[in-house]
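User: My instructor asked us to take a sequence, write out its structure as tokens, and then describe one feature of it. I'm not sure where to start. Here is the sequence I was given:
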Amino acid sequence: MPTVEPPTLVYLIDASVYVFRAYHSQLPDMLDVERRPVHAVFGFARFLGDLLERTRPQRVAVAFDRRLATSYRNAIYPLYKANRAPAPPDLAVQFDYCRELCARLGLAVFVDAEFEADDLIGTLAGLMRAQGIPSAFITRDKDLAQLVRMGDLYWDFGTRGQMGYHEVERRFGVQPERFADYLALTGDASDNIPGVPGVGPKTAAALMRAFRSIDELYAGLARVSALGLRGGRELRDRLSEHREAVYLARRLTRIVCDMPLAVTAADLRPRIPDLAALDALYDRLCFGPVLRHQARRLAAALSGEPAARTSV
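Assistant: Let's start with the prediction itself. The structure tokens for your sequence are:
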């Protein structure tokens, strides 16, 4: 059982990946009052409630992707994520429900038309770090590993466990600060970002151990053939040939950490859940007592009062 961190962390939740996981892991037999599927909402609500009960965070933010067809990354590279199938039609409504759920639970919700959830999380982490507060990144997306610094935590809640700064380096073979450059070399098939042909994770990690960045790599490209890597001369030539593509890829893989957000630590303190509004939402979703009981326990913990019984 992993050790739960002290509550001084800010918990930054990459919501969309958990909504998708719930959508694909729950049976689609739960329907709202309009007979629309809501199984992803239920699964996400269970994940979120369990996380909040277990950690009792003093600061928390939930970031969603807008799921638009274009973003600033699409403007840079129109084929970005073009390999992904369109989201199922019934999922859009469930995302709306999930955002409403977070707000009714008293959580700060962030979504942007141009930037992705990763960028919102990166910016929030930077703002909190400037205030002396480390972050717990609640996600299943390896891209967010690039944000981890000493004192931070990468946590795929309920599945793969936790990683700190050095665990990220041990798992991927590269320091978090160099992870975006590493991905620019290997490419990222999940986002349809091509890498350098023949450069896989091991080679990219070796290059990032020898050079602190792709800028340093290209400034010292002549050294590549002397690193003892297999096919060093051919590797040097491939890197030279694909230089422009690598720099383009880094613009896609690097998470934006300077969005114009004016957020303080106080803005991320969870509020007492609006139980009446939650009950009304759960009535629309046709959910039973489990989530209602959990919401009352969360409300009681925040208010310092015993949890009230729920009548159903």
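For the description part of your assignment, you could build on this observation: DSSP finds 13 helices and six strands in the chain. Try explaining in your own words what that tells you about the chain.
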